[in-house]
Amino acid sequence: MIENPDVIVVGAGLAGLVATHELVKAGRRVLVLDQENRANLGGQAFWSLGGLFFVDSPEQRRLGVKDSLELALQDWFGSAGFDREDEDHWARQWARAYVEFAAGEKRQYLYDLGLRVTPVVGWAERGGVAADGHGNSVPRFHLTWGTGPEVVRVFLEPVLAAEQRGQVGFAFRHQVDELIVEGDAVTGVRGSVLEASTAERGVASSRTVVNQFEFRAAAVIVSSGGIGHNHELIRRNWPADRLGPCPEHMISGVPAHVDGRMLGITEAAGGRIVNRDRMWHYTEGIHNWDPIWPDHAIRIIPGPSSLWFDANGKRMTAPAFPGFDTNETMKQILATGYDYSWFVLDQSIIEKEFALSGSEQNPDITGKDLKLALKSRVAKGAPGPVEAFKQHGVDFVVADNLADLVAGMNKIARGPQLDLADLERQIVARDRDVAHKFSKDAQLMAINNARRFLGDKVRVASPHRILDPAHGPLIAVRLNILTRKTLGGLQTNLDSQVIRADGTPFPGLYAAGEVAGFGGGGVHGYNALEGTFLGGCIFSGRNAGRALGRVRLG
Ligand SMILES: Cc1cc2nc3c(=O)[nH]c(=O)nc-3n(C[C@H](O)[C@H](O)[C@H](O)COP(=O)(O)OP(=O)(O)OC[C@H]3O[C@@H](n4cnc5c(N)ncnc54)[C@H](O)[C@@H]3O)c2cc1C
């Protein structure tokens, strides 16, 4: 613990650690509170894949990708679709500043801390309708060598060194329940000390209260994460008018501590929440056969070749292809009245194209093990974790022929039974279009386009007939809705100061990371370009820390 801190940080996830790192550099004394134990330092970022959005990077250029700030801004604003004058007021400014950061200083800032990325840039969220609409015109998803744990490490190490020097104190199992407001300003926090926990990282911990606490400081930074594990709050805020009815069955892509409580607590103190209805949940969720947290879901990050069918067995239409347009796909799925869909693919596609999001699902890159990475990604066979899901996952069906595959799918369907003849007709039609170069099938055209990018040449299976036994066995995956990111949140100005209902900054109160919609209360608008969340935590945490390093405190 630390006496008389200058700043209190609520939440020791990535945003909180980045802010603390900047505060330490500015000579501030910092108290960091977290409701979880020390084993959970780094929060969600530890579990993340470490995908980072950079614009016009050396890695892109080496792969022949021509990117620019102008193109990235066009993509960002085309995806965001900001349309709310008041709620998007700061978000628009954050968006421009963040894209400029991603095209400029971001890479060097992280490089100087020791972070490196792999040479293969991924092409996430490709969009697919119009040049000025949603999606990345070019590949921009840079994978951290060491994945999420490495992103955490580069900020955590200097913070732990400051703890050793007595400049930073941690109070774990301290759950903030209230912000103290005196006069016009936030001057501290109150809350509950939770019983000690030896739970391993990510495992849900007890909420038994053993004591109360109160701490004061000249400023408080809220960096408590989003609402991703709070399904009740997700249901309350679900944008049914835009996406369709809220899914009945949802599985959790984030640990239980992502509970969203601090949003309500900050609002009760006078902070303003905006864009509550904007969220970023995935449509390619599978139940983890080896779960760590309750309802643990893993997201498949798919290449473009799997055929995607809705619950009725109808092939989804452009741009609802794997990895193209998350919200449009969500809309098409929910329009059926069911909350799941199907991938149909084969062994050749799973081997080349299936990646799983999460540091623990990528032991080769997380462990910075080049030999293992080459073996698992280039050698024959699917990577080990993917193969494990194929064997043990409740959402997977594997069969040597389509009749058996459909019979297996019908056993695990939560809705209508699929019609073998209808599915076969659609797959055969698509397979016929593989036989020549000039396909009219929009997905095949998109695959041909993808394969012109060197990075996708390696990752995308060469187009072939799905029903060709040489590429078998056939595989079907029941895809569920996986809850993950909160795009709205506490409105903040460019210094990460929380804004009040009257539009003025709240003295003494700052917010960073997912709780602040990754900056401004919703830097992404309605849609994300991917790899932008860790970066949003870094940018907004940095701004908070630097702003509080500049001003006179106390
Ligand atoms: C599996 C997975 C893969 C991902 N992959 C990527 C990726 O490749 N690229 C990308 O950009 N993003 C990715 N993300 C998203 C990204 O990791 C998160 O958005 C980001 O880490 C959120 O960080 P944060 O600091 O805002 O919040 P969190 O990490 O949620 O940390 C908040 C902390 O606050 C604490 N807290 C909450 N309330 C209280 C309270 N009342 N009192 C005290 N403490 C409290 C929590 O215990 C927690 O430790 C991924 C996320 C996951 C889960």
Automatic annotation (TrEMBL):
The keyword Flavoprotein applies. GO terms for molecular function: steroid dehydrogenase activity, acting on the CH-CH group of donors. Transmembrane segments: none annotated. Residues 6-534 form the FAD-dependent oxidoreductase 2 FAD-binding domain. It comes from the Bacteria. The keyword Flavoprotein applies. Keywords: Flavoprotein, Oxidoreductase. NCBIfam families: PRK12834.1 (NF009472). PANTHER family: 3-KETOSTEROID-DELTA-1-DEHYDROGENASE, KSDD-LIKE STEROID DEHYDROGENASE RV0785. This is FAD-binding dehydrogenase. The lineage of its organism: Bacteria, Bacillati, Actinomycetota, Actinomycetes, Mycobacteriales.
